[in-house]
Amino acid sequence: MHSFEALAKQFSEKFNTRHFPDTLPSLYDPATYFLSIGGKRIRPVICLMGNELFDAIQPDAWHVAHAVELFHNFTLVHDDIMDKAPLRRGKQTVHAKYNEPTALLAGDVMIVTAYEYLSRVNPLHLPKIMHLFNKTAREVCEGQQLDMDFEERPTVTFDEYLHMITLKTSVLLAASIQMGAMLGGSGEGNQDHLYAFGKNLGIAFQLQDDYLDAFGDPDKFGKQPGGDIIANKKTFLTIQALEVAAPAQKKELLRLMKEDPSDKVNRVLQIFVDCKIDLWAKNLKDKYLSLALQHLEDIAVISSRKQPLQELALFLVQRQY
Fold first, then answer.
1. Spatial contact of 94 and 106, defined as CB atoms under 8 Å apart
2. CB contact set of 176 (below 8 Å; sequence gap of 6+)
3. Taking 60 as the threshold, does the pLDDT of residue 114 lie above it?
4. What is the CA angle 176-182-188, rounded to 5?
């Protein structure tokens, strides 16, 4: 069994090649540029780990891992356009460096290339892989639309936000590990547990992301905290604060979200602390991490084979950056 770090290194060595034709550089160079920015590669590597949980890594798992990473980057390119984000991981986004039409097309060719990788999968496995991949791709789009819809609404419930995050973030993690398990010869019962592991881990991951954006150490997190607060994003923390705050605190929080004073971040964070939102977020994160680990425990495989996934789950949810 390989660790996440070892498999991430192997995947990066295979993935860091040109995936597009050498013709028409005005289209393919921007796509190549964005892929070169890199990232944690969590989704493709967890696909490989799902395979290795049951068997030696199959060639098809590498094809699916490539497809997953290309699809993920396609969503990021388009999300950056929707969010008008100038930077991603400290580098210019594609639409900022080039222009929006080019960024749209760069994202489009990524997803076309993802399907080219999927088409290489053994025909015995391809129908189930394709069904899960397409279902997940549709759900990710639904999650992004819900996220945009929520920006136009004055209030969003916790359950609505949880559903949106599950679609936008968790299902791709869950599907990635299930597709790897499929290729490793796993039975459906084990696949269901792995999907639930990935889904709950994705929710815990997002909770930690929301928490770090508000309370993270800027030296470790790599950016000043409070970006979500400045953007008035309805995160787990904001939704819970509006739910439990005293009337005066709620009124002040809503006013801060409308007026954007210079000390907005500190004042919102103080309301969060006064309402014990930081402790609530940690407890909820631990709840979803425990659910994920319980599903991992229930998989009918010897414990030593599960250890790399357990270590990855703990790292993702306890990270400080």
1. yes
2. 43, 44, 46, 47, 50, 64, 65, 68, 198
3. yes
4. 110
Yes or no: say if 235 and 210 are a contact pair by the CB < 8 Å rule: yes
Reply yes or no on whether the pLDDT at 85 is more than 90.
Answer: no
CA distance 12 to 45: 9
- DSSP string computed for 194-238: HHHHHHHHHHHHHHHHHHHHHH--HHHHSS-S-HHHHTT---HHH
**CA-to-CA separations, 219 to 40, 100, 263, in angstroms, rounded:** 18, 32, 20
Q: Are 94 and 134 in contact (CB under 8 A)?
A: no
Give the integer Cα–Cα distance in Å for 151 and 283: 26
* 8 Å CB contact between 194 and 178: yes
pLDDT, residue 223, reads 60
Q: Mean per-residue pLDDT for 46-60?
A: 97
Nearest by Cα to 46 from 8, 15, 13, 14: 8
Strands 87-88 and 91-92, by their bridges, are antiparallel
Q: What is the pLDDT of the chain when averaged over all its residues?
A: 95
Q: CA 30 to CA 108: how far, in whole Å?
A: 12
Beta carbons of 175 and 132 less than 8 angstroms apart: yes
Per the structure block, which two tokens stand in for 300?
């009918």
Residues of the chain with pLDDT > 70, as a percent, come to 98
Q: Quick one: pLDDT at residue 154?
A: 83
- HSE, side-chain direction, 13 A CA sphere, residue 197: 27
Provide the pLDDT for residue 231.
Answer: 85
**DSSP secondary structure letter of residue 37:** T
Torsion, CA 94, CA 96, CA 100, CA 106, rounded to 10: -10
pLDDT band at 222 (very low <50, low <70, confident <90, very high): low
